[in-house]
Specification:
One of its GO terms (cellular component) is cytoplasm. This is UbiD-domain-containing protein. It comes from Aspergillus ellipticus CBS 707.79. GO terms for molecular function: carboxy-lyase activity. This protein has 405 residues and is α+β, with helices and mostly antiparallel strands. It folds into two domains: 285 residues, Electron Transport, Fmn-binding Protein, Chain A (Pnp Oxidase, Chain A), CATH 2.30.110.10; 99 residues, UbiD C-terminal domain-like (3-Layer(aba) Sandwich), CATH 3.40.1670.10. It is built from ten helices and 17 strands. Strands 4, 5, 6, 7, 8, 9, 10, 13 and 14 form a nine-stranded antiparallel beta sheet that branches. A three-stranded mixed beta sheet has the order 3-11-12, with no helix packed on it. Helix 3 links the parallel strand 1 and strand 2. Helix 5 crosses helix 6. It is globular, with a radius of gyration of 22 Å.
Length: 405
């Protein structure tokens, strides 16, 4: 099991704090399968992974990709308070090997083709981007796709990364970034959480783990990355160079063939990695996959916090996997709901303004309100309640488009 060898320090960490410890736990629970047979990274790998999603089978770890003799891998994450800041360490497993400049050739890496309709190969589908505002006050950890463009370039859509990039651009500087693969499960979960702009994801990671996340400094910039990551790419986002990005089959399980747009080019300047690095990949399509188990789950958690902070009698929020991150099911405490003596319309409008005005609510068009006798995680319960209790027109309320939260 050479591809999942841990360091002595990692052996003492919980699975949520180490990608390889997590994989070892999958081994211990017989929830992973090693595929040593040669597999083609051009669609075959993706097809096998999609089959696993749809049959709820064991997570595949590929070790023999056609045309690539170095061990590689893929793993599927299955649903793995007061912020605790990370702690900087001088080095870590991710610093075992280093490449700079012309020694880097992304086209030589086993980057799989995921869908026949995609506009290119997407290196980044389940890694974590790190960027920081020029004043150092906001460090953003996020999951954003990026497409292979050239031997040392990627193309990336704008999100929170674009907000921070513009801060650098306003100063006449290019925005440094780090793209990290195989980070611990806790950081990847928090990276998918739609936190408000300016909030530090790194502190949330520590809170989730109950301990400080170990980070180490990049080779070419001052960014701090998880010390036990598998692979880290370092570089800058160009202020002037753009290229066409997309299309890509995304989380709704659909692809829009004409959906291409010009996006910033990223130049890779350095690459660090550990022995036998593992490249995590998400193959989007029909649920469930990581869009639902990571992004959808953390969206629901953020909306729960938003509702409770607003004083609403909300006890649970769920994002059904089958809805492809397009529904929220909000459970309401009926006892507390009676106290303000509001009408159904007044309460529904209040919840709608609260949810749709939040950052995660921007992406989700439908909210179902259910009583505390309905389990939001049980889709049969939700459909039954909707079919028998929701009256067309009288029980439905519509809202205008909200700006991004």
């Amino acid at each position: 099991m050479a591809t999942t060898t841990t360091t002595p320090h990692e052996d003492t960490q919980p699975p949520a704090a180490s990608f390889r410890r997590f994989i070892q736990d999958l081994h211990a629970e017989n929830d992973i399968i090693i595929i040593d047979t040669e597999v083609d990274s051009d669609l075959e790998l993706a097809a096998i992974t999609r089959k696993v999603y749809e049959t709820e089978d064991k997570a595949p770890l590929f070790t023999n990709l056609k045309g690539h003799h170095q061990p590689t891998g893929l793993f599927r994450v299955l649903g793995a308070p007061t912020p605790i800041p990370p702690i900087e360490v001088p080095t870590g497993p991710v610093k075992q090997f280093t490449l700079h400049g012309d020694a880097i050739d992304l086209t030589a890496l086993p980057i799989p083709s995921l869908h026949g309709s995609d506009g290119g190969k997407f290196l980044q589908t389940f890694g974590m981007y790190i960027v920081q505002s020029p004043d150092g006050k906001w460090t953003n950890w996020s999951i954003t796709r990026s497409m292979l463009h050239g031997p040392c370039t990627l193309v990336i859509p704008r999100q929170d990364i674009g907000t921070i990039q513009r801060m650098w651009q306003d100063r006449g500087l290019e925005c440094p970034f780090a793209l990290c693969f195989g980070v611990p499960p806790a950081p990847i979960m928090v990276s998918g959480k739609p936190l408000p702009a300016g909030v530090e994801e790194s502190g949330y990671n520590g809170a989730l783990l109950g301990r400080r996340v170990e980070v180490t400094r990049c080779e070419t910039n001052g960014l701090l990355v998880p010390a036990n990551a598998e692979i880290v790419f370092e570089g800058v986002i160009s202020n002037t160079e753009v290229a066409m990005e997309g299309p890509m089959a995304e989380y709704p399980g659909l692809v829009f063939p004409g959906e291409c747009k010009k996006c910033p080019v990223q130049r890779i300047e350095a690459m660090t990695y550990r022995q036998d690095p593992i490249l995590p990949v998400c193959v989007t399509g029909r649920a469930p996959e990581e869009s639902e188990t990571v992004w959808g789950l953390t969206q629901a958690a953020e909306v729960l916090g938003v509702c409770q902070a607003a004083g609403l009698p909300v006890t649970m929020v769920w994002n059904p996997f089958e809805s492809h991150c397009l529904w929220f099911v909000v459970q309401v405490d009926r006892g507390r709901l009676r106290e303000p003596k509001t009408t159904m319309e007044e309460f529904s409008v209040l919840v709608g303004h609260t949810v749709f005005g939040s950052k995660p609510g921007y992406y989700i068009p439908v909210v179902y309100l259910v009583g505390d006798e309905i389990d939001p995680t049980n889709l049969r319960d939700v459909i039954w309640a909707n079919a028998t209790r929701c009256q067309p027109r009288d029980s439905e309320f519509f809202f205008d488009q909200y700006p991004t939260g």
